[in-house]
Specification:
The protein is an alpha/beta fold. It has helices at residues 32-40, 44-57, 61-70, 76-86, 93-102, 115-126, 128-132, 170-177, 211-219, 229-240, 246-249; strands at 17-21, 107-114, 135-143, 155-158, 184-189, 203-207, 224-226. Helices cover 41% and strands 16% of the residues.
């Protein structure tokens, strides 16, 4: 039986293209989880070492990420409050999001972060209307035993699945990829939480200077580099309008 629009929500409007994207450090200039770890948790150096262990030493992202978040003990509502004050949107993303909505290109946010954080930031940075049309697939937040999430050391991440990533983004993309007649699929990301999605779409956008490029070059994964969403906007528009192909757009780091 063919997948339905209910099981694959991005197909509901019969789009010609779907734009899957990471959230932290991709749509935003700062990674909300990194910001919490650096400013409220165990700091920059231990976080960077954790990323290196995932990228080069095969450590599960899930375990590294858990350690990061365990070091943040501030109540969850206070964390949200601080993130709203300190996390900024890629300056070109809002224009891209409006173009996608007007041209029937669904944006699906696939995040290794936490749904309440992402939803709060999207509403704050984009407005309720623009944020409401985006599907978010991510981890969640739960209270620690005997506590509420808004107490000191009261919250914990609730992973989306049992994979080594905590959220294996490929699991969301593959049912779309398996369709015989499907839209063109894009993915944009920047870091180690995106490794599971890197090989799954027709064109991968990898953020300049970030860990995802290192992985793609090591694993010979085709990609095109982006600095901000104006780069992505131009290429996605040209592909959707038939002015270029995804193969022509996969220019690597050049």
């Amino acid at each position: 039986m063919a997948p339905s629009a209910h099981s694959l929500p991005a197909l509901r409007t019969k789009p010609r293209a779907i734009f899957f994207t990471d959230f932290d450090g991709t749509i935003t200039l700062q990674d909300s989880n990194d910001w919490m770890t650096d400013n409220l948790g165990f700091g920059v150096e231990l976080r960077r070492q954790g990323n290196k262990d995932v990228l080069h030493n095969g450590r599960p992202f899930r375990d590294s990420f858990q350690e990061m978040l365990d070091s943040v003990t501030k109540p969850f509502d206070k964390c949200i409050e601080l993130l709203l004050q300190n996390v900024q949107l890629d300056p070109a993303f809002k224009e891209f999001a409006v173009w996608c909505r007007e041209n029937n290109v669904p944006i699906v946010v696939l995040s290794g972060g936490m749904q309440p954080v992402i939803r709060a930031l999207l509403v704050h940075l984009l407005g309720e209307e623009e944020a409401s049309v985006m599907q978010i697939v991510s981890n969640d937040v739960k209270a620690r035993p005997g506590k509420s999430i808004n107490e000191e050391n009261g919250w914990d991440i609730e992973y989306h699945d049992d994979s080594s990533f905590g959220h294996d983004k490929s699991l969301e993309i593959r049912p779309y990829a398996a369709l015989s007649d499907r839209p063109v699929m894009f993915y944009a990301g920047d870091g180690v939480s995106d490794l599971s999605a890197a090989k799954e779409t027709d064109l991968l956008f990898a953020k300049a200077g970030r860990d995802l490029i290192t992985y793609c070059e090591t694993e010979n994964v085709p990609f095109t580099v982006f600095h901000d969403f104006s780069d992505i906007h131009k290429i996605v528009r040209d592909v959707v309008e038939g002015k270029t192909t995804v193969q022509q757009a996969a220019t690597g780091a050049n």
